[in-house]
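Milestone M4 deliverable, item 7.
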Amino acid sequence: MKKIMLTIISVISMLVLGAGGALVYAANVEKPKYKVLEKDGKIEIRQYPALRVAEIKRSGNRGNAVRNAFSPLASYIFAKKRDGEKISMTAPVTQQKTGGDWTVQFIMPSKYSLSELPKPDNAEVRLREIPAKKRVAIQFNGKQTDELLATKEKELRAWLKTKGIIPKGPPLYAYYNDPFTPGFMRRNEVLFEM
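Output delivered:
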């Protein structure tokens, strides 16, 4: 009985430490500094500044596309094959369906202008600046399944309809946490440009 209790206490301690570590990591990662213009529960209308991104296009289903894009983007920011300094990881990683492909983006730290960013070693990785935009977002927790994203997208579209707002373009999915963060602690968003 004593061994079982010690095992249970050890497992609970590891879970608490892991969750605490995930929270500390997430708190120390730079995120875009947007201004909240309107808030209604988990839905916000935000004004975003111009953002610099490294992006790559991938085909296939949403989950595979984001997984397949992560390695070349991470290779770029961590200077695996290119000269120059490493670039700090930021949040969120974003994903949007454009035509038949998915565009996956890492947002670059705000200290860099587009011209200051190191040139990618991989021709598929593209650097660009996204102009300042107004976006509406719904925030939620959980593992980023297609079903959860579709549910939240539907919820956000219904809210927009009640306000008489027609979104511009397809939804943008934003993922704020690393894959080791427990699902119930993961911050995710569905956003539309307004």
